Amino acid sequence: MSAETTPALSYAAAGVDTEAGDRAVELMKAAVSATHGPEVLGGVGAFAGLLDVSALKEYRRPLLASSTDGVGTKIAIAQAMDVHDTIGQDLVGMVVDDIVVVGARPLAMTDYIACGQVVPERIADIVRGIAEGCRIAGCALVGGETAEHPGLMGPEDYDVAGAAVGVVEADDLLGAHRVQAGDVVIGMEASGLHSNGYSLVRAVIARQGLALDAEIPEFSRTLGAELLEPTRIYTGDLLALLASEAGAGVRALSHVTGGGLAANLARVLPQGVTARIDRASWAPPAVFERVRAWGGVELKDLEATLNMGMGMVAVAAPEQADAAVRLLADRGLPARVIGEVLADADAPEPGRADVRVAGAKGVVGGAVLVTGTHDGWA
C-alpha cells in the first residue's frame, strides 16, 4: 500500500475515545456536585478544583494534612463481578481515614482513574462510589482525571487512586507524643476485609478453586459479595468523638491497613511503652477464619496482612474510654476496649503464640504485643 493510500491515523484510531470521556463526565456530574458545599467554587470540569478556605483564618496555627492511596487488587474482584459502584468508597476510606488519625478534618479530595478503554457507564459508577464515600466522610470531591491507556492496559482493566487534604489545629494534633502508660486501646469494628490483603485472599480463593458466585453459609451471601463489601469510613464518627467531652481523652488514632493491627498501632506509640492487645476481647468476622482455613494461612501471617475485624483503633485515657465507646456505639459503630498501654518494664515476655511488633513501617517508636486467643480459634 502506498503512502498516498495509507489511512490517516487519529486519536480515536489509536484507541482513545475523547467523546466517551465526555459522556462519562456528564454521567458523574450530579454525584460529584452533591459533595460540594458553598466553599467549593467552579463546579465540575475546571482545570483545578477551588476551595474557599477563609475559615482557616479562625485557626491559631492550622496544619494541613494530606494523604494519597489506592485500592489495590480488590479491583480484580470488582472487575470479575462487573460491579463498579462500591470500589470508590474503598478508595475514599483508604485516603480520608489516614487523614483523620492525626485529628484532621478532610476538606477536599481528588481522584485518578486509569483504564484501557473508557466505558462511560463504568467510569461513572466508579466516580459515584467515590462521591458516596466523600458524602459519608463529609469531604468535597473537587476534581479528578480519567486517562485512557490503550495498548498499556486491557479494555476491561482499570486502576484508581486518590488524594485528599485536611486541616487540624496544631494544639489538637493527635499522635505518639500524647500516649502514656496506663492508657487503653479501643478497637472499632471493620465492615470486613476493607481494602488490604487481597493478593493473599485471591491466592487462597484460586488455590481452593472457589467461584465468586458460590453461596457461603458463614457469610449468608456469595463469596463475591463478601469480598466486595465496601470499606467502613470512620472519619465522621471520629470527628464527632473528637468534638465531644469524651474526645478530650483520645491520645492517638491508627488506621488498620496494610501490615495489620500491630504494625499500624506501633506507628503511633512512643518509645518506652508497649501496647498489649488481647485477642480474646473480640471475635473476627467469619471471612477471616475462612481465609485462614481455606489457605492454611498461619495466624502470624494473617495478622500481618489483614485487619482481623478491627479497622481503626484509638489510644485513650482510661477514665474516658467507656464514654468514647458509648458515643461510637450510639452512632452505629461497634467499639470495645481491646488492650492497654504498659511501660516496657511492666510488659510481659511474649509467649509462644504471642506476636510482638516494634519499629513498624520505618517509625522508631513503641511496641505492640498481641496475646491470647480469639473465641473459637484454636
UniProtKB/TrEMBL annotation:
Residues 64-168 form the PurM-like N-terminal domain. Pfam families: AIRS, AIRS_C. Keywords: ATP-binding, Cytoplasm, Ligase, Nucleotide-binding, Purine biosynthesis. It catalyses: 2-formamido-N(1)-(5-O-phospho-beta-D-ribosyl)acetamidine + ATP = 5-amino-1-(5-phospho-beta-D-ribosyl)imidazole + ADP + phosphate + H(+). GO terms for molecular function: phosphoribosylformylglycinamidine cyclo-ligase activity. Signal peptide: none annotated. Residues 180-344 form the PurM-like C-terminal domain. It is found in: Cytoplasm. CDD domains: PurM. Its EC number is 6.3.3.1. It comes from the Bacteria. Pathway: Purine metabolism; IMP biosynthesis via de novo pathway; 5-amino-1-(5-phospho-D-ribosyl)imidazole from N(2)-formyl-N(1)-(5-phospho-D-ribosyl)glycinamide: step 2/2. Its main location: cytoplasm. Belongs to the AIR synthase family. This is Phosphoribosylformylglycinamidine cyclo-ligase. The gene is purM.
